[in-house]
From TrEMBL:
Residues 99-217 form the Beta-hexosaminidase eukaryotic type N-terminal domain. InterPro entries: Beta_hexosaminidase_sua/sub, Hex-like_dom2, HEX_eukaryotic_N. It comes from Molorchus minor. This is Beta-hexosaminidase eukaryotic type N-terminal domain-containing protein. Keywords: Hydrolase, Membrane, Transmembrane, Transmembrane helix. The chain crosses the membrane at residues 20-43. It comes from the Eukaryota. Signal peptide: none annotated.
């Protein structure tokens, strides 16, 4: 009798063990099934996302921007043989120069633009007393650091051989006060595929303003995949001072 009871217990344990094992196996298979479904959905979504981006890029390549009424850039279908123009380039070349603060005087002579690479830029101190050279070099370094970086894959087939920024400062002021002359002039010309950007000012502070204005005339063209600068323009500005009385 005891042997029969023992056999029954062993049988029940074996049966329980088998049921537990079977349950674990089924649960594992269910988890694997759900995982496969999720992975498949993610993979499908990834493929759809890539296709969507590819189609978007393909669609974008069929459009260009046209300047209308010398004030507004309108997106148009790209005609066969027509050169694509980015919105950034159209906005800069279409209306008056978008510079802030608005300069006192802007002279435009057949406004054009050219592509270039950052490594083609040089900054020269044509005239400056030793007292302000360190400050000017610091301003020039900030200017260069603020230029957008372009990947090496974009660096080829530019319009100009070099961009030479020349700075002229006549004064020696290094401390800003209410009577400091912060006026400046910026002249950008293209001579035989070399663009000269001349920044002239009576003080270092004016030259610093001039470099800031010059930086607003340079942009990254996503269509050309290069930096671009507007030239054949002259700008003069004199920030207003508000001296106190007494």
């Amino acid at each position: 009798m005891r042997e029969l009871c023992g056999m029954q217990v062993k049988t029940d344990r074996s049966s329980l063990k088998m049921r537990v094992t079977t349950s674990i196996f089924i649960a594992a298979m269910l988890v694997l099934f759900v995982y496969c479904l999720s992975a498949g959905a993610v993979f499908t979504s990834g493929i759809e996302y890539i296709d969507k981006n590819r189609n978007q890029k393909s669609e974008n390549s069929l459009w260009t921007y046209i300047c209308e009424n010398e004030s507004t850039c309108t997106r148009k279908k790209l005609a066969e043989g027509q050169e694509r123009v980015s919105l950034e380039t159209c906005n800069t070349m279409c209306a008056t120069l978008q510079v802030w603060p608005k300069p006192t005087h802007v002279e435009i002579n057949n406004k054009s633009s050219s592509t270039f690479n950052k490594n083609q830029v040089t900054i020269e101190l044509l005239r400056a007393v030793d007292k302000v050279k360190d400050d000017l070099n610091t301003a020039a370094k900030i200017f260069m650091n603020n230029l957008p970086d372009v990947g090496e894959s974009w660096i080829k087939d530019v319009d100009i051989t070099s961009l030479r920024i020349q700075i002229i400062v006549n004064g020696s002021d290094t401390k800003l006060n209410m009577s400091t002359d912060e006026s400046y002039g910026v002249s950008i010309i293209n001579i035989e595929n070399t663009v000269f950007a001349i920044v002239s000012a009576p003080t270092y502070f004016g030259a610093r303003h001039g470099l800031e204005t010059l930086s607003q005339l340079i942009w990254l063209d996503p269509v050309a995949k290069k930096l671009r600068i507007v030239h054949d323009v002259k700008i003069f500005d004199k920030p207003k001072n508000f001296p106190t009385e007494g």
